Amino acid sequence: MEKRYQIFVSSTYEDLRGERQEVIQALLELDCIPSGMELFPAADEDQWTLIKRVIDDCDYYIAIIAGRYGSIGSEGTSYTQMEYEYAISAKKPVIAFLHAEPGKIAAEKTDPEHRDKLRSFRELVQKKICKSWTTPQELGSVVSRSIVKLMKEKPGVGWVRADLIPDENAALEILRLRTENDGLKRDLELTKSEPPKESKSLASGDEEIQLHFSFSSGGSGHVEESINVSWNKLFATLAPVMIDGASEIALKSKLGEFFRNRKFDNSRITIYNEYLRDEDFQRIKVQFRALGLIAKDDRQLGGAKTQWILTPYGDTVLTQVAAIPSSKGHKIELPADS
User: Fold this and answer.
1) DSSP summary character for residue 155
2) How many CB atoms lie within 10 A of CB 127?
3) Average of pLDDT values for 244-251?
4) Residues 6+ apart with CB under 8 A from 304
5) What's the pLDDT score for residue 332?
6) How far apart are CA 151 and CA 223, in angstroms?
7) Residue 202: CB partners within 8 Å, gap ≥ 6?
8) Per-residue model confidence (pLDDT) at position 338
């Protein structure tokens, strides 16, 4: 939605007519709304209340300071300084623009009577962001660049056309859609940590699958053998490899290692060139995908071989079936029908 920012321009008036005109022109070219003390006579407390209210409504505040201190209020402070200090207290983004060569300002545009107050005021604004200028044209250019940067760094609330503001019904519909969207996001996050509904009828947990391996052992040549292993055991074997992504070659190698270790434990024989039947490997892969445990790695570069990673649910199941339980605690087991 297009916004226009309102900017309060504070300065003495008579001596800076040309400078204010350059600044206002620069602000208008930026589609900003200039506001300033010239819109109302700052002569009494009621007008000061109005000035403060206008500053409150503005998004930014700029002060232009040259050779005059300005009209003095009831407390002995100029209205320009009062405005500046009020803008600071109201936490408005503030920039002051100081004349770079105050000693060269024409005498008729100076205020010798309040020279000390002006010097103190200049010292005050130099503690915050300030820029320098020497000519009205330079001032307009400096103000334009500074405001553009300020709007990027500290975006204000701004003003919009009334006909662009959503009506009550539109606002309620936006709120309803946002609430619905938040609910869908929560449901989506929940599904990531739960198995697919269709997986309840699939083999899993402690149910077993028969795997067929071929291998070589000593002088016996090529041998084939089958083993039964639970889905939990298979997942506990393969899942750690897929935490950061694993190729199908790496998964087959891990299954071969699993078979070799199991065979050695049972018969103490040395085997090599072990290989799982491809049909069995595809069954394992399809089953884990159907159970919502693994997925293809979408982070792969084009042309790369297929990699597999754990789903958020698969990562949760991994901690249940592969983590080492405390000897003092109870054992967590994955339900057979999960």
Assistant:
1) -
2) 9
3) 90
4) none
5) 47
6) 76
7) 287, 290, 291
8) 42
Task: Work out whether strand 272-276 and strand 94-99 pair parallel, antiparallel, or are unpaired.
Answer: unpaired
Alpha helices in 136-243, H assignment, sequence order = 136-153, 168-192, 231-238
**Dihedral sign for Cα atoms in the order 234, 239, 240, 245:** positive
Predicted TM-score of the model (pTM) = 0.50
Q: Which two tokens stand for residue 305?
A: 């071989």
Q: Tokens for 119, please give them.
A: 């010097």
Which residues partner with 95 through β-bridges? Answer: 62
Which tokens sit at 158? 């701004």
Calculate what percentage of the chain has a pLDDT beyond 70. Answer: 82
Q: Are 148 and 155 in contact (CB under 8 A)?
A: no
Instruction: Please say whether the beta carbons of 140 and 26 come within 8 A.
Output: yes
> Over the stretch 180-209, which tens digit does the pLDDT of each residue have?
777 666 666 655 667 777 788 899 899 999
Quick: pLDDT tens for 202-246: 998 999 999 999 888 766 677 888 999 999 999 999 999 998 889
Determine the Cα–Cα distance for residues 162 and 166; give it in Å rounded to an integer: 9
Contacts of 141 (CB under 8 A, 6+ apart): 26
Which residues neighbour 67 within 8 Å (Cβ) at sequence distance 6 or greater? 15, 99, 102, 105, 106, 109, 110, 111, 118
Distance CA 73, CA 43 (A): 8
Q: What is the DSSP letter of 117?
A: H
Q: What pLDDT, in 10s, does the model give residues 271-316?
A: 778 889 999 999 999 999 999 899 888 665 555 678 899 988 888 8
pLDDT at residue 168, as a whole number:
63
* Residue that has been written with the tokens 């002995």 in this structure: 76
- Looking only at the bridges linking them, the beta strands covering 130-133 and 94-99 are parallel
CA–CA separation, 299 and 157 (whole Å): 40
Q: What is the DSSP letter of 200?
A: G
User: Which one, of 65, 66, 63, 64, lies nearest residue 55 by Cα?
Assistant: 63
The domains of the chain, with CATH numbers, are 6-164 (3.40.50.10140), 199-321 (1.10.10)
